[in-house]
């Protein structure tokens, strides 16, 4: 009997370790027998297997809901757990939707897990809360972290291209580490920012989007309409991107992950410059610059044919390594990660390096309290981003490139001057005589505390605290004679320091309650934040020694500290917000919200404004009259209205400003004194730009979820635009800022996702496509004006336009009767432009061509979108991501004459074009020297305007998922290898057909040689920036 009682004690100890209640044993033998019987009756053994589409999942957590009782799966995905009768099992695994299964009478359960983002029951983040996809009434799009990582890159912008209807990504630079321009449903403002608000882990993000490591992202939720963004008030007018980073999972054993890839970057296509034979022939036709200042430098006889691009471009290397560990106990969870990313350009010494750290800790304290902390920190170094291509592309191919010792020259003799030439040899041998570097550090930290209010089910109080810091140190040094046509050109250095600190605090009260078929969620918020910004700038000329570089500019012979480049500001924002969401039986849904913001940026009396929003949803598929339609899984109608504003008023802009200016002073004609003058007038009435949006949507899911989609139509009106109003010269100030003008955006979006083959004989095929069109219109300008030609603004036209001449061909020899009227003194072979005037009866124009014939050309596309597809067979998978656009205008500063590479004179090397001659009467490009003839130069930029249409395959990835037993015995639960090619090819692009080059923009107009006075700085162009590349990657993902 003693032995029997001892066994009972051991059994109860085992039950205790499984989280079961075991009372202290003080019983007789009979009581022991009774206790054993009770224990057996109170528990039930359940076994099972957890898997996904690729096989068993190792380390998945199975927990008895409402208890601390839990186990994890073994190497084969199997588990065994003792639970109470009627228990519910909660199954969780990193990167998969959590599932709940009622045990009932089951003793063996097989569960297939779905990756996050594949179900109507998935939860999306909507700002200050979450909601099931099925219950969302605003315009919200979701992208999972796994999709982000399908397109490797420095940040999230590459992954969003072509993924989401209504979200336009434009490349502003192809330099390493560069981010893209993001526009959600078009451009609204003429002078203020059009960038969306980024929210990182619940707190508005104060840094650069390149600071966020894509490896740490669990999901991104994009709020597109004002009924969804109004809760962010004055910062939500341009849309909101909510980024959620990974956290740990409770009751999860430690899980270690490694994600890495390495790859080579090659030039997408060479710039189509002329070779020696073509260039020599061009010079002969142009009859210009045929004799260099010293004939021994020239190879017009074909003895020299130099390809300077071969001497510059190299193969770049890109690599990324990320390691993370996550897990948790019954009361807490953790997630830590470290990563390193390096991206080299095809231009020597130009690269971007980033070191990043992510950490998140969550801990329950007792029954009612939960606290947590997350940080995303990074340190980046960008090297030699100042290196451009103009000198290399414009270098003549017939100049002798070698010194007497056989080495490459740093300067070559051009037709009328000398020119420094960038080559691998010259750049890599510069040493201390050149350095261009940006070092940036950012740390973004969020703390929270959450309390469940006792005795009030569903009521919680939460406080969020965000502490953000970002600093950037930029330095540039160019030694004596470097990059110059003269050996004795002075050395110079630049140093710039920028620092931003930001804190934000949010107090939030939430109430969630479900009774019967009714569900209500209510949020009340008070928040405050403050931002401090500082910038210093210094320039030095004639640095005494290369070793000083930009580290001690004070030793320069001439030091300039320009007040215009020094900056400091402090701004604050205070807000209150409320929102109520109601759901009846997942059939009828409503959301009502308001937010009031007060900003220190504006004058008293204009600092506060309130933003209302309301949206309604009707899941019509749940009505009784729809139940017989078996192929319809879900059909929801949505409508929403909301108001937001643009907060991008510069601090202190309502106060006016004083600046310094030098004045002649005294009898000395060279004497002067520095005085102050009013540079901008105060405006105590200056306020924010306001947007009002109506959104109409329909969400549907058909055939058991195999086909789903969303269609939306929206109209957004923006009023009180920030614009410059001209003043008479007698005022002493040329203009002042005021709230005048209106714009309108309206558009249609369609997204479709489908499963074409659903695991048939090992085959799976999924595909998605999206399409959207946005019509942008300038409705009203200041003082009732209908056009502002200096800014290219025209009422009734889009915001982004080109106001210039439009080439329709080349004047031919048989058009003399028309040409002598249209272009007096002109010749055959000149550019022929579109004419806006009237014609005489004989078909000749009534006047010469001139200023009145400038055209308003739309820049933005008529429509655009993207598609993606994934085909899998057993362990193999192949995925393709693409984007497309139709219409609009692509600006190429390489083909436009102001870029100097298409002057057709022979002074510098020229783009290889099909130019006009008497023997080749083409309509493509003018005759050599023709751009300089008579009055024709003003038409030269028309050569650089192309249709913006293209279809671009962005990534093709082939992967293999290992599922071999030997891996599991080594403790590896998942392993995957893949090969990716990025930017493989382009179709249906007129620009690509002409040049062979990538039709995506790579710079702003004012960043290109000699065009700063022509192209608007906010227009994106294909220019002399670092060229686009085709990338070849090999990657490995492992989970231990």
Description:
It is a single chain. The longest helix has 16 residues. The chain has twelve helices and 56 strands. Among the domains are: 111 residues, Immunoglobulin-like, CATH 2.60.40; 123 residues, Ferric Hydroxamate Uptake Protein, Chain A, domain 1 (Beta Complex); 47 residues, no CATH class. The strands form 14 sheets. It has a 22-stranded antiparallel barrel. Strands 11-16-17-14-15 form a five-stranded mixed β-sheet. Strands 1, 2, 5 and 8 form a four-stranded mixed β-sheet that branches. With 1040 residues, it is mainly beta. Helix content is 8%, strand content 46%. Helix 1 runs parallel beside helix 2. The N terminus is likely disordered.
Rg over C-alpha atoms, rounded to the nearest angstrom: 33 Å
The helicity comes to under 10%
Structural class: mainly beta
- The number of helical segments is 12
Task: Indicate the CATH class of one domain.
Answer: Mainly Beta
Distance, first to last CA:
47 Å
CATH fold type of one domain: Ferric Hydroxamate Uptake Protein, Chain A, domain 1
How many strand segments? Answer: 56
Question: What is the level-2 CATH architecture name of one domain?
Answer: Beta Complex
Low-confidence stretches: 1-41, 292-297, 1009-1013
pLDDT average, as an integer?
A: 86
Main pleated sheet = 22 strands, antiparallel, barrel
Overall shape: globular
State the oligomer: single chain
Sheet-strand content, in percent, reads over 45%
Family: Belongs to the TonB-dependent receptor family.
Subcellular location: Cell outer membrane
Protein name: TonB-dependent receptor
GO cellular component, one term: cell outer membrane
